[in-house]
Amino acid sequence: MTTENTGVRKTAGDDTAAAGKPPSVRPRALAWQRRRASAARFWRTYRTHRAGVFGLAVLTLFALPALAAPLLTGSDAADVTDAPGAPLESPSAEFPFGTDRFGRNLLALVIRGARVSLLVGLLAAVLSVAIGTLIGVTAGHFRGWYATVMMRITDWFLVMPTLVLAIALATVMSRSLLTVVVAIGVTTWPTTARLVRAQTLAVETRPYIERARALGGGHWHVMTRHVLPNVMPLVLAQTTLIISSAILAEATLAFLGLGDPTVVSWGGLLQDAREAGAVSAGHWGYLVPPGIAIAVVALAFTLCGRTVESVLNPRLGVSR
Amino acid sequence: MDTNDQYGGRRRIPGRARLVMAACAAALTLTAGLATPLDPAPRQAAAADDGKKVLTVAVAQSVDSLSPFLAVRLLSTSIHRLTYEYLTNYDPEDNRVIPGLATEWKSSPDKLTWTYTIRSDSRWSDGEQATAEDAAWTFNTMMTDEGAATANGSFVANFEKVTAPSPTELVIRLKKPQATMTALDVPIVPRHVWEKVGDYSKFNNDKEFPVVGNGPFVLTGYKADSYVRLKANKDFWRGAPKFDELVFRYYKDQDAAVSALRKGEVSFVAGSPSLTPAQAASLRTEKNIRVNDAPGRRFYALATNPGARAKNGERMGDGHPSLLDRRVRHALFMAVDRKTIIDKVFQGHAVEGAGYIPPRFSQYFWKPSAEQELAYDPAGAARLLDRAGYRKNGDGERVGEDGKPLTYRILCHATDPNDKAIGQYLQEWWGDLGIGVTLDCLDNVTDPWLAGEYDLAFDGWSVNPDPDFVLSIHTCAALPATPKDTGATDNFICDEKYDELYARQLAEYDPEKRAGIVKQLQSRLYDLGYMNVMAYPNAVEAYRTDQIESITTMPAKAGNIYGQDGYWSWWSAVPADSGDTGGGPSSTGVVAGIVGGAVVLAGLGAFVAMRRRATAEDRE
Amino acid sequence: MTADAASAPVEGTGAAGPAKDGPAARGPRVRTATAYPRYVAGKVAGAAVSLLAVLVTGFFLFRLIPGDPVKFMTGGRQVSAEQLAAYRREFGLDLPLWRQFTDYCGKALTGDLGTSYQFSAPVIDKITEALPNTLLLTGTAFVLYTALGILLGTRAAWRHGRLGDRLGTGLALTLYSLPSFWLGLLLIITLSVGIGPLPGLFPTGGMESGGEEGLAYVLDVAHHLVLPVVTLVAVEYGQTLLVTRSALLDEMGSDYLTTARAKGLRDDLVRRRHAVPNALLPTVTLIFINLGRTVAGVILVETVFSWPGLGGLFYQALSVPDLPLVQGLFLVFAAAVILMNTLADLLYPLFDPRVGR
Known about the structure:
The structure holds 3 protein chains of 3 kinds. By secondary structure, chain A is mainly α. Chain A has 15 helices and no strands. Chain A is 77% helix and 0% strand. In chain B, the strands form 6 sheets. Chain B has a 7-stranded mixed beta sheet, sandwiched between helices. A 6-stranded mixed beta sheet of chain B has the order 14-20-13-19-17-18. Chain B is of the alpha+beta class. In chain B, strand 15 and strand 16 form a beta hairpin. Chain C is globular, with a radius of gyration of 24 Å. Chain C has a two-stranded antiparallel sheet. Chain C is an all-alpha fold. At the B-C interface, helix 1, helix 4, strand 10, helix 6 and helix 12 of B face helix 4, helix 5, helix 7, helix 9 and helix 10 of C.
């Protein structure tokens, strides 16, 4: 483990050196080449983490049918008037999970639901991390009163009970996927902001930043060319972890009846199942598959996120 | 990621902290022990240990207030029905008015004075006699105190004066005639107790038990969001209830309530909200459980925005102008397949809609004649739309003269699964007609609703034995005074002919004649096409036959049990003889006890082992 | 985590790296004896400011909820225009917004949170009624999942990389990914109703059967407590486990441990005596932060198990919207987090070896 550690640490050093090198002949091409190389190194290390590979495999397994959903599922899941079965049928050869309250094929619905759940998870995480990175980098870069105000706001969002705040936001806005994305994104960014700011502060103390400044690099240049590439790995790991919780949060909001009722998502299916009384009526096919899908995907994202973190910072040595 | 060195140098936690940790572990084991079911057996819902017959009802609503002056929720008003007598009651057979605290009543020739004879055999649970004085005081308090008028103020709005010339005589003087004087659903409270209350808007009647009352049950205990306990009133004038105790237990989740019924934790699951078709179907197969699929008292309609206006004539909201054309409204409703709604959404637990008042109220029920009826006919609907000038364009969309495609917004309750389900059907049915539909599902629809900012909306009301209120909400008088005000109107209907009929029925004291006018009102409403009743959902509820032998439904032939207009169900319920479902619960208790004990022992063992090992190592 | 799913990122990161974001990162390094009181004063003042900010947010945020509380409460009943006006007057909704705000703030500072619209009772009363129930549920779950997390986390770190560690950590991560409401529902159908030959062992919901007294009451409540607590513990313990584990692994590579080992102390003893106590530091901060969050995050479990606590109350209040009650509860939820964060901030330097007390 120790040898690996040093190996990766050296890599990280190379990377920063690359970013900090004064422009040479074809600086951009060189930078890209180095980035490609470090991505390859990253993948080599990632590959050795079994949990991470497992997570990635599971995600591929879920993403493929989700992407191909329009081909795999026809009108038997889309239209309520053309529903092929009777409402709440038990599992059969035709409907492996049974049918929903309209008589639609539940297997097809779970596949379609994957699209929405994954999409909401991704968008919410991207929104959350984007806000967090923006605030983190600027607060780390500018210091002074701006940083104080920003960090105060961050702290204040941090003490807000997130679920309560998300529920309140979802209640205030109209029912739509966008609402759910915003409610999750707006409530979960503060951690990212704190982490990114800490990293920014660390990066900015490095000598090459001073060099860049001395060579006339403005705020924008420093932030986008030097700070951002260095916080990117952290941001990547953070995104993966937040997707996992965003998917759970989507399910939670849908379960509390705050989702868009006309869109099929996993959380929405669980809510439908509950509203139809499937739980006490013993319609397992309605309740179990969406729940398992949520759990498995959330788990897969967590595993990937942890692996990314431990590859980038092997001292944590978490998931091996 | 420089996470290292955040915690600086290191020092070990002192021995004291270790001790604390050990104590924590001990506490944990204790809690685990406590949390395991050493409790002998889950309490039997029907028969308590001391042989008392207890009837436990699972309800999905929490109590808002136990003060009759404040309570408005169904659960709370049902409890007041059980604990206080009202002047009149309704016959469980057919909803006709029968004596309650008043034994008889008559109106003066000018229709403005009503005299009630108060019974002399009703006593408060503290031994005092219930008199006309109590009734007069109750009404007078509601007329003079704003706080006391909170819940039932509308009943006394038309009262001029209320007096009690003698303990058995109550006289009410009206400002103008009112046909609903035998349907004053107001709990009469004991004056000698309630006089002492300071602020009626804040007093919730939930601190001192038992609460003095004169109904078939006496309120003996309450815990917010947990339960309400009632004890049988052995001296009730109509006869004592058969069960000794009645408990309403709160279940937020209806699936949990159904599970509790299946297990025997509760004897009855209230059908408010109704059990779902899936729940009903699965309970039907259970031994010892009876599903009561009762005709409901609600209508479930699709309301159309009639171009909302305030009383001063100012326009409100933004209802689609095409809906002002009656042909369009009729065409829309003709494209609604009510049979599919009954079969698929309600799965048979509802009756196809016709008139405004549900068939359960047979006196007032009305049905459209064959030629008047807007039967399901999508082709006819398309023709009607063509005739109204909304033809399909090349893309299959219907466009009006302005060239814009027709798209309607439907306001739906996010908390009502039926709204959402039917909304999806409407999207597809009307989509076939070439009309676009957006579903606006909100937790709280009141804002757009009151502002008239909708095209169509899912609507539904619970109808009382006296239909006056549900009829009154469609009169012009109910419109808001100005667009800024809120009126009592349901969806801004204002029709001269309707108003005229409404006024006539309110002043008609002959029940038969009044019913005739009410039917004409419904016919008019049907033709207008602003209130299209799709269904009358059933009240689906269930109870354990091994705990309740018999119980009165209302109406008696086929009716509901929970939420009756009267105390009939719980007053009449007869406990089942066995009172015990057999070995199930007790063996459950034994198993639970063994499992619990094992967990505790294992926990303790592990804990002791750890401690011993730790000390052994420390000695090394 | 799922009990407070939206908050998971905070915890998720905590799980991956030892509380990078813990209060320690924020707290100054206290070096002198006089510094601590000043530090405390600063933290307490910060908490007070946060609380004030929450007070203001609560007021304005919930005014945005669509819906007229008066109309919602009178919906479906016969009410006259005068009655509606009376309601508005009583609720203070006839006043301009700024007056409502100043009234609200003035009262809140004296401890009066107003009167609930739908329950006609002081908000304080409704909250004090439900708070002990929520604390009982979260408190029990908290003690159990923290103890379990620390215990299993320590074991996992000792057996680092072995099968036991992999299985234990894998299980923790899996449970941690479950939606808590879903797990709760499954537990109800299996353990509460009974499935196949397994009889129903636990009540389906609520906190008590009603009418019990003395020891029978305690046992009855404990019996009702089992399933909600199991649900909370199952989804929450994983996080504590992961943080403890990674903190301990972090610690095990440290120089001073090598020194200790070099002195000839047995490996096991080194870990137990030196590594574990130090590794617990980040866990301690996490524990406090979690406790605050759990109070707010229990909404789902309370809903599924019909537990008569703050979560259920909040949900009922939101649908009206019962503004005073919503604001009051929001304040309580936020206060719980602020209080616990501050406590963690205050306690941390006491554990921190650099404090020169």
